[in-house]
Amino acid sequence: RNYYGGNWASFSFSGLLSWIKENQQKTDLSDDCEDWRKLILEDEEAIPLSRKDKTIQHVEDFCFGDQDSAEGVEEAGALPKLPVFGASGAQEVSAGLEKECPAVQSPCSDTEPEGATEGSGAGPTPGSETSPGESPVQPEHTEAAPAETASQEPKKVTYSQIVREGRRFNIDLVSKLLFSRGLLIDLLIKSNVSRYAEFKNATRILAFRKGKVEQVPCSRADVFNSKQLTMVEKRMLMKFLTFCLDYEQHPEEYQEHESSTFAQFLQTRMLTPSLQHFILHSIAMVSETQGTTLEGLQATKKFLQCLGRYGNTPFLFPLYGQGEIPQCFCRLCAVFGGIYCLRHPVRCLVVDRASGRCKAIVDHFGQRISANYFIVEDSYLSEGTCTNVCYRQISRAVLITDQSLLNTDSEQQVSLVTVPPVALGSPAVCVIELCSSTMTCMKDTYLVHLTCPSTQTAREDLEPVVQKLFNVNAEKETENEELEKPRVLWAVYFNMRDSSGVEKDSYDGLPSNVYVCSGPDSALGNDCAVKQAESIFQDMFPTEEFCPPPPNPEDIIYDENEIEPEESALSNSAEAKPESSAEESNSGEGAAVTKE
């Protein structure tokens, strides 16, 4: 690939259009040049790798405006001498350049001072939560501009504007939020990777009930300030949430319901239907038909424990999109000598017949790279290796809309909605709505992500939910402006492979020192990826600490034997430029190496 992160990547709008075009092409790449097979010795055998990523299927995109008007329109803000990250077919941005020149990724022109203020503002930093005796972290101020009054006509955004402002979009292939006390936040703090990223609070949890979107009270203050709950309901809700925080101490309250679903358990707790809906779909977020009582109690407790660390909801979202997270780890890796190669295909794994261990890889230059351990993402494995693997699928949709699902005084809201199953047998759908201050979309638009486990194609799974929440007609038809749904300007549907539950034994013929990591899963959080990374690391290096805190540069003590060669190399470089290494001379334009 020519972009970071695989299926965890983020794209500009033009980059996503290129990605869509690539994945809609059905042509498979034939191995027209098999010179690399000559490099395999008699006592070795090769395990060929896949030439094409087959993890994305059923890609369908729709424009609900005048697409012809965008012909000839170019992306604004392009800097000719600087590379563009995210566009498939464009050059990549080096790790250091992205933070030194933030305008490359999301330029802030004079027409949008609010975006500049909000994007550069200090959002909550993991590790800086409030503790006794300290001043609390101030949440990001998201109301830099006065909100439009109800009497003002909303600005109509055209498709040509979206194309022109395409660099303001950072569209994630996978949609997730970070639990404020989740494994990924803990890892970001421990490893100090959090210094490379900024985060914004998810500002509200919404519910879709009886055809309407309404806000869910989460914290104690929200509950008692809520106008949609009666005083009796407020007491009921607080009593139940207090029980969930230490439910392990009261097994008599739930043991006889352990074989029941969480939905059935809630019906025994003297809760009104609206409270049951809020708890099941918006707080616990477990399946109505499959989520057990214990799963529901555990999920509710996790939700409540994450409240208040950085804001009034349990969730954080990284500015510039989820695709920033893998890049942040790459930056720290680069500081300590790691190299990330783009546009550098690998042809095969080389296995020693005698030991059965993998000893090297062969790239598309015919270059052998030897190592003791090899970590490969599932999508690189060929169909022959994955014969016995049964994959799940994720249904995804990304929408660009003209207004929020629930309009309030502030336009800058990050919202989470769980839509219950629209039909028997269909899954619940997780909806994340992002505003422009997350630096993922242009002003006057919202970026909406829909995700659920697949039962059909992504469009078949998600289009019924889109039609319930949004207006998909090209022109506004509703007379009542207050009740009007947000209008969809552009949409894409696609299915993504979920390989998170596949055991290594399921793959045929993989050596013991080859480790397989999965792509994204369908869960809202990132715990699965963190657990998998730590498990692979501990298998390789059982005595080492996983992602230890890096030393400060000024605390590093160099050995004298290491310093002397460096000093001599520096003195020689003043006289003559060093020759390129063999790897650099072989790579040509086919691989890009990013180092800090």
From TrEMBL:
Stretches assigned to the RAE1/2 domain: 394-522
A GO CC annotation given for this chain: Rab-protein geranylgeranyltransferase complex
Keyword Cytoplasm: yes
GO molecular function, one term: GDP-dissociation inhibitor activity
Residue ranges, compositional bias (Acidic residues): 556-567
Keywords: Cytoplasm, GTPase activation, Transferase
Name assigned to this protein: RAE2 geranylgeranyltransferase
Gene designation: Chml
Subcellular location: Cytoplasm, Cytosol
Region (Disordered): 101-156, 547-596
Species for this entry: Furnarius figulus
Start-end of Low complexity biased regions: 583-596
GO annotation (BP), single: small GTPase-mediated signal transduction
Record-stated family: Belongs to the Rab GDI family.
InterPro entries in UniProt: FAD/NAD-bd_sf (IPR036188), GDP_dissociation_inhibitor (IPR018203), Rab_escort (IPR001738), RAE1_2_domI_C (IPR054420)
Top-rank taxon: Eukaryota
